[in-house]
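User: quick one, sequence for these C-alpha cells?
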C-alpha cells in the first residue's frame, strides 16, 4: 500500500511542483516590483505634467509683469503716477451697496470679515484639551 502512495510518479510530480515553486517565487516578486515601479513612474509623470502647467502659468505671469501695461498699472496705483495732461479724480467714500454688478466687475473687493462670536471663549490650553476629549 505504501508503495502505491509513494510511487515514482508521485515523486516526479512533487519534484516538478517544487521546481515550479522555485521559479514562481522570484517571478512573483519581480512582477510586484514592476507594478510598484510602474505606479511610481505614473505618479512622477503626473508631477511632471503638473509642474509643467505651473511653469507655463508662471511664465505667463512673468511675461505680464515684465510688460509695459503692468508697469504702468503699478505706477498708477502704488506711486500715484499720471501722464502729462491727465486729470486725477479722487472719489471719497464708496456706495454702501457692494452687491451691484458694476462694483463687483470694476473692483476686486476683499470678502467681508467674519462676524465675531458672542459666546465666551475658553483659554487656549483648556479649550484644546476639551476639544481633544469631547470634540465639541
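Assistant:
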Amino acid at each position: 500500500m505504501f508503495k502505491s502512495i509513494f510511487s515514482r510518479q508521485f515523486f516526479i510530480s512533487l519534484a516538478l511542483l517544487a521546481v515550479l515553486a522555485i521559479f514562481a517565487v522570484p517571478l512573483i516578486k519581480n512582477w510586484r516590483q514592476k507594478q510598484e515601479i510602474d505606479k511610481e513612474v505614473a505618479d512622477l509623470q503626473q508631477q511632471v505634467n503638473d509642474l509643467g502647467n505651473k511653469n507655463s502659468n508662471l511664465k505667463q505671469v512673468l511675461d505680464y509683469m515684465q510688460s509695459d501695461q503692468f508697469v504702468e498699472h503699478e505706477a498708477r496705483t502704488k506711486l500715484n503716477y499720471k501722464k502729462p495732461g491727465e486729470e486725477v479724480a479722487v472719489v471719497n467714500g464708496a456706495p454702501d451697496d457692494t452687491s451691484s454688478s458694476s462694483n463687483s466687475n470694476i473692483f476686486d473687493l476683499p470678502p467681508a470679515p467674519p462676524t465675531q462670536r458672542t459666546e465666551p471663549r475658553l483659554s487656549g490650553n483648556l479649550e484644546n484639551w476639551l476639544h481633544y476629549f469631547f470634540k465639541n
